[in-house]
Amino acid sequence: MADALITIVLRNLNAILEGEVRPLVAVAGELKKLSSSFTAIQALIADAETQQIENKSVRDWLKKLKDVAYDVDDVLDEWRILHLTSGSHVSDDKVRACSFSPLLFFKKLKSQRRISNRIKTIRERLDEIGDEKIKYQFSEVRRVETHDHRKTTSLVDKSEIRGRSEDQDIVISKLLCREGKGIDVISLVGTGGIGKTTLAQLVYNDEKVKNHFTRRIWVCLTEDFSITGVTKMIMEDVTGSACNLSELNTLQTQLVERLQNELFLLVLDDVWNGDQTEWERMRLPLKCGKHGSKILVTTRSEKVARAVGANYIHNVIGLSNDECWLLFSSRAFAGRERDEYMELEDTGRQIVEKCKGVPLSVKTIGSVMQRKRTAEDWECILKSEIWAILEEAEKGIIPALLLSYYNLPIHLKQCFAYCSIFPKDYWIQKDTLVQLWMAQGFISTEKGSEVEEVGGDYFDDLLRHSFFQDIESDNKGNIIRCKLHYLVHDLARYIAESECRTADAGKVEPYSIRYRHSSLLSLDGPFHNLRSSRTLLLLGRSRIQKIPPKLFDHVKFLRALDLSGSHITQLPCSIAKLRHLRYLNLSRTDIVELPESMDSLCNLKSLKLNRCASLCNLPKGTSKLISLRHLEIEETQELKHTPQGIGRLSSLRTLSKFVVQDEDGCNIGELGNLDLLSGSLEIKNLEKVAREDEARKAELKKKQHLQTMILHCEEKTKDE
Ligand SMILES: Nc1ncnc2c1ncn2[C@@H]1O[C@H](COP(=O)(O)OP(=O)(O)O)[C@@H](O)[C@H]1O
Ligand SMILES: [Mg+2]
């Protein structure tokens, strides 16, 4: 990840050095020195990253290097902010017009000096780190950037499943059998990635099974297991809607009502908890089902299978070499001619053997090989040390996955590792993920390309590398959301260990470590350890109602803040201190209005306020959010005004709703400038459009990227 970070820093450094507003000579000198020091170190990083798996001091060295790189990035961003807000950004008419003011000039000079001194201190730190590198004798590794944009492999679907028909038949016969008394439990046991969930899915969706049971319920447990939690999940699957009950007794009584007289199949995927008493309590309401109802449990542990009182345990073992080969070659050779891959077959079969029948490994490594063209590249993977290192390191990480990670292009590495911020089994929204990557500066674009589009390509690439699964698309085939396999999640977490803190219910990570990216379940202090935070996501339908007043004083370098789903009604004015903020998600909160001070968030790119049912006002100064690209305000019934001047935000790509007002309010002509709008736009109060020329100014026909436009007109006048 250090590699990717340094790439970003170098990009930002060069952007300033080559930018329109040149820094003072002294600053420029320091920046150039920084740039050359980073470039010298960058050549060695690939080697350092491999060595760190085994060598802790290399890991520490890399950490120090990253700390410096992050600090540089923050200072550079401050430089940008200074220049964005001081009015010297004249080429950009989005910024308020400026006139020369001596006071401003000296203030700016002072800030420049301050920044210059900070850069100098940082550069000295970097030089020290640079000197240390000699100790490790890293070798230079030539960076091979593969820009492979072939989109040949199809997404994972049934047609990709190999083998398992025997397993299916056995498990199905156990499910359909009506002998025995009570409700049978059947367990599928096997190591991670071997295909338990897949087998469970196959039988769950089998026609005979579908016809046999009157109700089928699927619940995925991952590591979190509380009786109340599981019962609630079962209820939610049964009713098909969110469940607000939190009292076990009520939950169980209601579940009994729902399941009485049903012949049900309940799948509990990935059970970890082997506590027999808890299990018995959880199972109590399930006894009301009809005779012949079944519970199918998948678990990695034999012990759990016994604890749940399984009447039958089915061991899920690895696929045969031939089945693995079929799975592997369908990925690795996709889009190639037979004579092109004949010579690779022998090496390929040896690689497949190393996967020990684990389909997750086979699939992942198959995706890696698809990008390797020569026999030499193939040999290199076969001989990689990683197959052996990890077995010793016993990190629980599958070698094939780690190899696949190391074979990702640099820009994808950090995008992938960042995903570890989400808890296990979390539905990751594609759009949101791309916006979070944007906020962190992970996406590099060339002139003329849209950062959102490039981010979408990154996502698709990770998907092709088999890092995402359970893809869900809308009816037009656009991907909406996905998940990570838990082993892939473990891998991401292993890589981002020192940078990302993941909120998993029941697990509290130590606050003593200064993580860069955190997902949290609550906002309790102490906050001083959040000082280096760049991402804060509040997850798990948080019940917090108020943001601790001091919070924003401690997280000044934050790039992304997500408080969605909480019960907050307002944001403190101190939000203005988050000048680096790019992403703010307040969707589904009880927020009523936003503080006016927000207009100083000149970096903000995404402001998400979807489904804020109480929201009545946006700040008057919204038009000063000059970097804003996405203003998402879907389903905000109480929001009856669009702030005046919004037409100046010519970078806007998303504006979910526009409310037309009378002459002295926001009139429809403001849409004229917003030619980049895409997705969906809802225009309300069209009856208030007073004159034809105003409507013409809106230039609606120029909005080529819009997919949907919804027009509302309350009451027609004669002219309309
Ligand atoms: N028989 C199979 N053929 C092809 N792919 C498979 C097969 N079994 C599993 N997979 C793939 O391997 C990965 C891991 O499988 P999964 O069922 O999630 O494993 P587990 O639940 O045992 O951890 C998934 O991406 C799945 O699509
Ligand atoms: Mg599973």
TrEMBL record:
Domain Disease resistance N-terminal per the UniProt entry, residue ranges: 6-87
GO terms of molecular function: ADP binding; ATP binding
Biological process according to GO: defense response; response to other organism
One Pfam family named in its UniProt record: LRR_14
Limits of the Disease resistance protein winged helix domain: 421-492
Alphabetized InterPro entries for the sequence: Apaf_helical, LRR_dom_sf, LRR_R13L4/SHOC2-like, NB-ARC, P-loop_NTPase, RX-like_CC, Rx_N, WH-like_DNA-bd_sf
All residue ranges annotated as the NB-ARC domain in the record: 170-335
All residue ranges annotated as the Disease resistance R13L4/SHOC-2-like LRR domain in the record: 557-717
Sorted UniProt keywords: ATP-binding, Nucleotide-binding, Plant defense, Repeat
Acetylation is among the record's keywords: no
Origin: domain of life: Eukaryota
PANTHER family: DISEASE RESISTANCE PROTEIN RGA3 (PTHR36766:SF40), PLANT BROAD-SPECTRUM MILDEW RESISTANCE PROTEIN RPW8 (PTHR36766)
Listed name of the protein: Putative disease resistance protein RGA3
Organism (species): Cinnamomum micranthum f. kanehirae
Lineage, uppermost ranks: Eukaryota, Viridiplantae, Streptophyta, Embryophyta, Tracheophyta
